[in-house]
Amino acid sequence: MTPASESSTAQFITSLQEHIRSALATHYPDWRATRRGMPRDFLNEVLAVNPLSVFIPTRFGGRGQNVAESLAMLETCSYESLALSLTMGINGALFLQPVSRHAEEAVQGEVFERFITDKTLGGLMITEPDFGSDALQMQTRFADTSEGYRLRGTKHWGGLTGHADYWLLTARGQTPSGELERNISFFVWDKSLGGIEVEEYYESLGLYMIPYGRNRIDTTVPHGRRFPPRTSGVRMLLDLLHRSRLQFPGMAMGFLKRLLDEALAQVRTRAVGGRSLLSYDQVQHRIAELQAAYTTCSAMCAYATEAADIQNDCSSAALPANAVKSVITDMMQSTSQSAVQLFGAQGYRLDRLVGRSLVDSRPFQIFEGSNDILYHQISEAVLKSMAKAKHRVLYSYLRADELTHQAAEYCRSALEFSTSESISQRKMVTLGEALGRIISLEMVLTLGARGYRPDLIENAAALLKHQIVTRLNSYHQSEQPRVIEDYEENSGWMQFSPSAS
Ligand SMILES: Cc1cc2nc3c(=O)[nH]c(=O)nc-3n(C[C@H](O)[C@H](O)[C@H](O)COP(=O)(O)OP(=O)(O)OC[C@H]3O[C@@H](n4cnc5c(N)ncnc54)[C@H](O)[C@@H]3O)c2cc1C
After folding, report:
1. First CA to last CA across the chain, in angstroms?
2. pLDDT in tens, 284-335
3. How far is it, in rounded angstroms, from Cα 422 to Cα 55?
4. Do both 355 and 472 map to the same domain?
5. N or C: which terminal CB in the chain sees fewer CB atoms within 10 Å?
6. Which of 95, 119, 143 is the last residue in one of the domains?
7. Which residues' Cβ are closer than 6 Å to ligand 1?
8. Domain span including residue 264
9. Closest protein CA for atom 24 of ligand 1
10. 182 within a domain of the structure (yes/no)
């Protein structure tokens, strides 16, 4: 076989696809994700093609960190298995890329060599049982000792719990008085150091291939294994998270294409009421939505090839990164809901792809930034910039911004209104959903201008416009149902039933 670093992208992708299909057929014969965990033989067969070499610089024997090739690798995996693609995504965006951007040269040399030669795996531990969305409050702490940095704390939900050979650990420095610094630091841990104990494995709802759980950490990491604080830890974290969010479309791409192919095959062959399902208008509506998601995702991939380049500091790319991540993961979930509907009861079987897609794609809306929070942040960022630039009308601001200028014209009539900075959080989220889709629409229109199929572009643009207008209508509604905490008093329906005695 040609060494991974020397084959063309096409050869590499074909070989990867063959290996994945063969490994899945051997190790997950029923349907891939009803079995929990990832047998080593399965991994060996997939990793024989060195898929993770796309995240490794050429000077360390990798394929050179070309974002387009990385996205193509993730897409190839997710067409076969979303969990496998997430495994590659975790290793790439949450471990190898940050190591390549921030670790000492000697650490990079060791890590990359082991990934290429020994087919090792890595992951990232940020989340703690009491601190998830507010990760900056993490309580895992480190102290500088003569042997290295001693880290202590509890982390959970790190993808590949108990399975990864390397972890990127995050912690806050402890001052001599016992208080924790505000800043976050990163440490490259490997199995030989010991001191990470899995206290519990979680029975996760989906993504059965990937082990999750809770880890107790009490370990000492050598001094050279800390990311040198050339910039603040929060900035490194944002660089890592934004680059990762920009690459979500790689994982979404194969997943959406597979759902589309499966759904099309189903509606072409299934007859109901003497007609093919595809002849029903509502069925066509669902398929068209799936195709629009496919096109939007393609546009995002094209965008990411430049924006997520490994040379770029992505720490300030919050707006596009948050829009791409939240919109595409919403689309993954809504299209799998649609596919399950089209498959009828067959879609509800645990051992069928569409049913698994529903639960496998759901956490993408939660991890690496809960979508509700990201949408809020999108609105906050836009409203702040509008105030700074002294714009009151949304259209005029978006028309002047390169992330949205074509899309603003496309949706002009819906955007001619004045915004206010003092609105409720739910309205901020709704507005953020619309803004995220306007940014996505811009990417679609740009893809169209590069010569992509006009019929697909037209459909995707129409769907996004519809979603934007619906959300803005909701934004303009004044009703805001409130929470009634003591709701049980005088609310039992039977009391009010005419036939109850
Ligand atoms: C499958 C899976 C894989 C994961 N992989 C990793 C990994 O590899 N490494 C890692 O470190 N972590 C990982 N995580 C953890 C994930 O990043 C966290 O679950 C996520 O950050 C949310 O934290 P939490 O679960 O503590 O929820 P919480 O912080 O309790 O938030 C729960 C919900 O509350 C709401 N909410 C919270 N704050 C706000 C707010 N300010 N405004 C409005 N609403 C709010 C949102 O709806 C949010 O979804 C993974 C999780 C899952 C499910």
Report:
1. 81
2. 999 999 999 999 999 999 999 999 999 999 999 999 999 999 999 999 999 9
3. 43
4. yes
5. C
6. 119
7. 90, 123-127, 132-133, 157-159, 207, 363, 366-368, 370, 372-373
8. 238-476
9. 132
10. yes
